[in-house]
Design goal:
It is built from 15 helices and 11 strands. The protein has 519 residues and is of the alpha/beta class. The N terminus is likely disordered.
C-alpha cells in the first residue's frame, strides 16, 4: 500500500526554500562586496606571490629575453574600463602571465646584456615588502624618525665603503651628508639647481644692481660630450646653457679642454658655474680626469658634480678605488646602488660637502610641515634635499643588503662581473672580424665588426630579432658600436660563451648573405 504524503507540508518546505534563496540573492545584491583582503587572505596570497617570484627567477633563463609584441598589444587584451565588482586574486595572477609577461623585457635574464645592470636581490625584495607594509612618507624627521636616521647612517656606511672623503659624510658634526634620490638624473638636476641658486646669490651680493634674470641669461654649465642625456635635460629644466667639452681619444675630458672653453666663455661675458664630471660614461664607461678638472673648478668657483651612476659601485673594491681619485675636489657626488650593488630600483646615493648649499636652494617651511625638533640642529628633514616632498623608506633595502651580503660579498659580486666582461673581450679579440672600440675597465665591452656602420646596424638587428640575447648600441665618434654589458645577478661564464657563439654564428650568416649580394 503506497504511503500517503502530506502535500501541505511538502509545499511548505518548497515555499520556504524559495524564500530563503530569494533572501540570499537579495542580500548578495544589496550588501557591499569586500573591497580588500584581510590579514588571513594576505598571508596566503603573499606566500603565493613570493612563490611566483621565486619561480620566475628560477625559470628566467627559459623565458625569451626580449618580447616580440607590437606597440598597442596590451589594450585589446583587457577591458576598456575598470571592473565594477571585485575580481579574484587567482584571476589577476593568471592575467599577469597571460597579459603582462609577454610584454616584459627581462632585465634580470642571464641573456640580457643591454644598457647597464639593474640590481636585484632577495634581501632587497624583502626589504621593499617591509617598506611598503610600513608605508611611511619620510619627508621629515618627525614624519618617521627611523626612516630619516637609517638613511643618514646608511649613506655614511656606503660612503665609507668607497672611501669617500670625510667631508661628504654626515657623521656627528660634519657640514656634509648623503641622501637617497630616485635616480642619477634627479641628482644631477638637484645639484645644478643648488649651484645655480648659490651662484646667483653670490653674484648679487657682490653686484646688487644685477637682476636674477640678467645673471641667469649669462650662466653656463658644462659636461663631457660623452655625458648622459640627463645632464642636458637638467640644463633645459634649470633654464641654463649647457656646453659639451670635447673628450680625448679615450673619451675622457681633460683639464686642458675645460680650461680652454672656460677662457673663451669668460671672454664672451658668460658666467661658468657648474661642471658635471662623469666616471663611467654610458656609451663606453670612460672616466673624466678628476685630478685635472677638480683644481680648475675650485679655482674658477665652479660647482663640480661627479656622476658615477654605474661605475660607483665598483669603488667598494680597492683595486678600482683609484678611479675615484680627485673626488676630494668635488662639491657633490652620486652613484646608483640600484645599478650594480644588489639594491633594487630606485636607490640613487648622493652626497654633498656642504648641505646648506643644497638645502638653502630648496627650503620651504609651511606650518603644517614644521615640528618641535627641527630647530634643535640634531635632525635632518630630507624634504629640503630633493624635488618631491614625499619619499619612501628606501634605506631599509640598503640595510638588508649590506648586512646579508657584507662588504666582501658585494666585492665578490662586482669582481665576478668584471671578470666576465674580460672573458667576453678575449673572445672578441680572438676573432679577426671584430675590434674592441674602448678600454674595458669594468663590466662593459664595446665592440663592432670591422666594416661599415650599416654592417654593424644589420648585425645588431639580427641579434635582437633572434631574441636569444639583448644588446643596445652607441656611437663612439663616427662609429656605430655594439655594447655588451654584464647585467644579471645570475649571469655566468656559460651565458657569456653562449652569447658569443650566437653572435659569431649570426655574423657568419650576415657576411655570407652580403657576399652573395656582391656583383
Amino acid at each position: 500500500m503506497r504511503q500517503q504524503v502530506d502535500i501541505t507540508q511538502t509545499g511548505g518546505v518548497e515555499y520556504n526554500t524559495k524564500i530563503i534563496v530569494i533572501i540570499v540573492v537579495f542580500l548578495i545584491l544589496i550588501l557591499p562586496a569586500p573591497i580588500s583582503m584581510d590579514t588571513t587572505e594576505f598571508r596566503k596570497r603573499g606566500k603565493e606571490m613570493v612563490d611566483y617570484i621565486a619561480d620566475y627567477f628560477e625559470q628566467l633563463d627559459k623565458r625569451q629575453v626580449y618580447p616580440d609584441v607590437e606597440p598597442g598589444y596590451l589594450r585589446p587584451l583587457i577591458p576598456d574600463s575598470a571592473p565594477q565588482d571585485p575580481e579574484s586574486f587567482e584571476d589577476v595572477l593568471k592575467d599577469v602571465e597571460r597579459i603582462i609577461m609577454p610584454g616584459i623585457t627581462h632585465w634580470h635574464s642571464p641573456y640580457f646584456f643591454a644598457y647597464f645592470p639593474t640590481a636585484s636581490s632577495f634581501p632587497a625584495l624583502l626589504a621593499d615588502i617591509l617598506s611598503g607594509g610600513i608605508g611611511c612618507v619620510g619627508f621629515s624627521w618627525a614624519a618617521s624618525p627611523a626612516c630619516t636616521e637609517l638613511e643618514t647612517v646608511m649613506l655614511d656606511w656606503l660612503g665609507k665603503m668607497i672611501n669617500l672623503p670625510e667631508e661628504f659624510l654626515a657623521g656627528k658634526d660634519s657640514e656634509g651628508g648623503g641622501v637617497i634620490q630616485g635616480s642619477a638624473s634627479e641628482a644631477t638636476l638637484v645639484m645644478l639647481l643648488a649651484a645655480r641658486t648659490k651662484t646667483i646669490r653670490r653674484i648679487q651680493s657682490e653686484n646688487p644692481e644685477l637682476t636674477e634674470a640678467h645673471i641667469m641669461s649669462k650662466l653656463v654649465a658644462y659636461a663631457s660630450d660623452q655625458a648622459h642625456s640627463s645632464v642636458e635635460k637638467a640644463g633645459l629644466i634649470g633654464g641654463v646653457k649647457i656646453k659639451n667639452i670635447a673628450s680625448d681619444d679615450k673619451f675622457s675630458v681633460r683639464g686642458s679642454a675645460l680650461k680652454k672653453v672656460l677662457h673663451e666663455d669668460r671672454a664672451a661675458g658668460l658666467i661658468p658655474f657648474f661642471f658635471c664630471a662623469t666616471l663611467g660614461t654610458t656609451p663606453c664607461c670612460s672616466f673624466d680626469r678628476l685630478l685635472e678638472l677638480g683644481p680648475i673648478c675650485n679655482k674658477e668657483n665652479i660647482w663640480m658634480h661627479v656622476d658615477a651612476a654605474y661605475a660607483g659601485s665598483a669603488f667598494i673594491c680597492p683595486e678600482f678605488r683609484h678611479l675615484l681619485n680627485g673626488v676630494e675636489f668635488a662639491d657633490s657626488f652620486n652613484f646608483n646602488p640600484h645599478k650594480w650593488l644588489l639594491v633594487n630600483f630606485d636607490c640613487s646615493a648622493m652626497w654633498v660637502k656642504k648641505r646648506l648649499d643644497l638645502t638653502n636652494a630648496f627650503k620651504l617651511d609651511p606650518l603644517y610641515l614644521q615640528h618641535s625638533h627641527q630647530e634643535s640642529g640634531l635632525v635632518t628633514d630630507y624634504r629640503h634635499w630633493q624635488i618631491p616632498l614625499g619619499r619612501r623608506f628606501r634605506s631599509l633595502k640598503m640595510w638588508f643588503v649590506f648586512r646579508m651580503y657584507g662588504v666582501k660579498g658585494l666585492q665578490e659580486y662586482v669582481r665576478k662581473h668584471v671578470n666576465l666582461s674580460h672573458e667576453f673581450e678575449n673572445l672578441v679579440l680572438q676573432d679577426k672580424r671584430f675590434e674592441i672600440c674602448a678600454e674595458v675597465t669594468l663590466g662593459l665591452v664595446c665592440f663592432r665588426l670591422k666594416g661599415s656602420n650599416e654592417l654593424n646596424e644589420a648585425l645588431l638587428k639580427s641579434i635582437n630579432d633572434a631574441r636569444k640575447i639583448h644588446l643596445v648600441p652607441c656611437h663612439l665618434r663616427e662609429k656605430f658600436v655594439l655594447r655588451f654589458a654584464i647585467c644579471s645577478r645570475t649571469v655566468d661564464s656559460v651565458h657569456i660563451q653562449f652569447a658569443w657563439k650566437h653572435i659569431s654564428k649570426l655574423t657568419t650568416e650576415l657576411l655570407k648573405a652580403q657576399d652573395k649580394q656582391q656583383p
